[in-house]
Amino acid sequence: MTNSVGELADAECILICGSNTTEQHPIIAGKILDALRKGAHLILFDPRRIQLTPYADMHLAHRPGTDVAYINAMMKVIIDEGLYDREFVESRTEGFNALRESLADCTPEWASEIAGIPAAGIADAARLFAGAGAASIVYCMGITQHVTGTDNVMALANLAMLTGNVGRLSTGVNPLRGQNNVQGACDLGGLPNVFPGYQKVADEESARKFEEAWGADLSRNPGLTLLEMMDAAAAGDIKFMYILGENPLLSDPNSHHVREALSGLDFLVVQDIMDTDTTQVATVVLPGACWAEKEGTFTNTERRVQRLRKAVEPPGEALADWEIICRIAREMGAPGFEFTLPEQVFDELASLTPSYAGMSYGRLGTSGLQWPCPTPDDEGTGFLHQGEFARGKGSFQVTEYRPPDEVTDGEYPLVMITGRVAFHYHTGTMTRTSPSLEREMGSAFVEVNPDDAISLEITAGSPVKVTSRRGELVLDALVTDRVKPGEVFIPFHFSESPVNVLTNDAFDPVSRIPELKVCAVRLEPA
Question: For the chain, how many structural domains are there in total?
Fold first, then answer.
């Protein structure tokens, strides 16, 4: 997030795209509701009707995969009507003329044909957002999990800069991380192309710095992304895999391909706190300690680094993840893994990562610090880009609409969307062991619009076969107007109904994120 969670409560307008915020990020949703109580406006773009819909000034239920079209059309209206922040654009950005030229044909009427939402609604949303004194953009995986996910994010960044809603309180572009330490994992180098602190592995100066600190020769070539690893394993090019705290057999798209990939490995290590679909196919399972059983830090979605303090001892032979990694590294003869405390790991991180350089366990206290925090006397950064961008001037990026990788046809006429429900979390590894949560929702379902249910002769609660180009599932039908005609929704928490046997593993060419939010399917009574 460019800004802090608490700032949302003082926003005058909040634009939410691809985020079922109340069910998946309830603390953040609470701040949004606080803003609405103060009179803020809410613009909601989501294919489904969600819990926030009744609170929204407008809910525009666009076709999945058409985000760039409606965002570009909003910017077209803002520029044509002179609603953009001219001073901000002229003093703090570059590339405006190219952006304006690229939007010449992106009228609300054009976007309406693509996105299936009223042209007047797009124009009204543009005026409402541009007219606010402080407007904040909030998005989640409904924006990123597309083959155009990078373009979607760039388009939202363009919209924020165009209206001057960056670098100020209660503004910004604010992605909501899907799990509690996704931000921390990325910060600390859990990506194939960067070292900790997003220092590029291809940068010679950065590589030499880490080689000296770690006493090792490091490749300047980025590694493989998750989907690329699975492709390489299926092709026989990867023989060993170490999976830590992940359940790809349930969470990754095209599950049949994932199972094929993992089955072809010579050796598979899975490190986790509980049994999962993926531990079932592992050669060796290493028991990790859960959050309450270890010391360390988490970094949350607002860049806040927080101390994690052990409440109880881990059971049996379970160890903290860092301890297991260090033991394995030492057995392999790797230098530099003589840590005895997690604080030592953090101190090394701070010494090599400019955005964490001013942090220490002693400074984190009970409330933590937000990066960047470059010096020991810095109090952290509540919102980014005040005064100037890290690169100097913000750069508008031309984003042209491209359709999803997979579109509907006569054989697969419906669009399937996947997502979460309030009672379960990700692949249900933890939440589905809770009797009370299982009582609330113990099985998967497929949401079907009443019009489609009638035409397909599907009755509420009856079993339905859902078929894609990759697989099929049988689920009970939930007939509801939460989804529009021509679209269906299935949650992905349930191992006995693994929706990702259906989903497409096509991915964004830049981010390598798969298109989990658009999948062509057909339905029939089972």
Answer: 3
